[in-house]
Amino acid sequence: MPITQNDTEVILTHPDNDATNVKILKYGATVFSWQINGQEQLWLSQGAKLDGSKPVRGGIPLVFPVFGKNTDDEYLSKLPQHGLARNSTWEFLGQVSANPPTVQFGLGPEIANEDLVKLWPMDFSLVLTVELGPEHLKTSIEVENTSSTQPLKFNWLFHTYLKVNDIEDTLVSNLTGSKLYDQLLKESYLDKQPAVTFHEELDRIYQNVEGDRLIQVVDKGTPIHTVKRHNLPDAVVWNPWIEKSKGMGDFEPKSGYKEMVCVEPGHVHNFITLNAGEKWDAYQLLYKDELKYQVV
Ligand code: BG6
C-alpha cells in the first residue's frame, strides 16, 4: 500500500522501493521521518513529543502565521513563537496521486487550535501537499485569504531539521553575498564567507536569497542535501549547539546538535499580505544533486 493512515499519522511508501517512505503526523501536519532506501534524511529528537502535547522537535514543523515572537502586531503578537500551524491538528484531505505518492492536509480556523485562533481571529485556509519521489520530498503550501473583507498578513516557513553526520564537518553553501540578520548578535550584515560553517550556536535569517540559488548541505566535500525554494526568499540557518540544546526539554540526546542542521526556507523577513479572496503558494524541494558552487 503506497499510502496508509491511522488516527494520528499518514505514511507514504514509494511504489518502487519499500524502504523509501515519509511519515506525517496529523498534529501540525509535521513530516517527522523521511527515508530514502532505508536512510533517514531528517533529524528527530529522541525527546520529541508525537502525542500532540507540543510541537514536534525535529522533522519539518510548519511555521504560520508568524515566525519567532512578534512584538508589534496587534494580533500576531498574542501568538506563541512560530504561530499556530505546528500546534494544530490538520485534516487529512487524502491522496492526490499514487505515483509519486502525494497527499494533502488542510487547516482552517474551524479546526485549528481553539485557544490560539481566539488570539488571532482571522479567516484563512491552508493546504499542504506532500510528494514523495524516489529521491526527493516536496512540500508545497497554498494559503488562501477566505475573508471577504479583511486582508490577511502572515509569515510562512518550513522549519526543516536535516540530518548530518557531524556538524563540525558540515557546511552550508550558496548563501555567500546575502544579507542576513543574526538573531544572536541582533545585527544585520552581508555574509562574505565562502560557506556557512559551525563551531558554536548559529541562528541567522538570510534575506532575499535569489530563487535560483540552491542551498546545499555539504559533508566533507560531498553534498548530502540540496534545498530548492519556490516563492520563499528567506532562509534561516540554525544550530542550537551545547547550551541552547541543554535548555530545550524535548531536545534529546543533548549531543544531538552534532547530527542536525536546520535550513528553513521561508518568507519571514517581511510579511505576505493577501487581500480578501487572494491566494499565495510556495514550496520546498529536498533532493540529491551534485556539488553546485553558484557563489564563492
Ligand atoms: C529557529 C529560530 O527557526 O527556531 C531559533 O531561528 C529558534 O531562534 C528555533 O530557537 C527553535 O524554535 P522553537 O520554538 O521550536 O524552540
Automatic annotation (TrEMBL):
GO cellular component terms given for this protein: cytoplasm
Which residues are listed for substrate binding in this entry? R57, Q81, R86
The cross-references to InterPro entries, in alphabetical order and at most eight, read: Aldose_1/G6P_1-epimerase, G6P_1-epimerase, Gal_mutarotase_sf_dom, GH-type_carb-bd
Which terms are listed as keywords in the entry?
Isomerase
Reactions catalysed: alpha-D-glucose 6-phosphate = beta-D-glucose 6-phosphate
- Pfam entry (one): Aldose_epim
- Entry similarity comment: Belongs to the glucose-6-phosphate 1-epimerase family.
Which organism encodes this protein? Lachancea fermentati
Catalytic residues (UniProt)? H159, E264
Where does the sequence pass through the membrane? none
Function text: Catalyzes the interconversion between the alpha and beta anomers from at least three hexose 6-phosphate sugars (Glc6P, Gal6P, and Man6P).
Which top EC class is given?
isomerase
State what protein this is by name. Answer: Glucose-6-phosphate 1-epimerase
Task: Give GO MF terms, alphabetically.
Answer: carbohydrate binding; glucose-6-phosphate 1-epimerase activity
Recorded superkingdom: Eukaryota
Quote the EC number: 5.1.3.15
GO annotation terms (biological process) = carbohydrate metabolic process
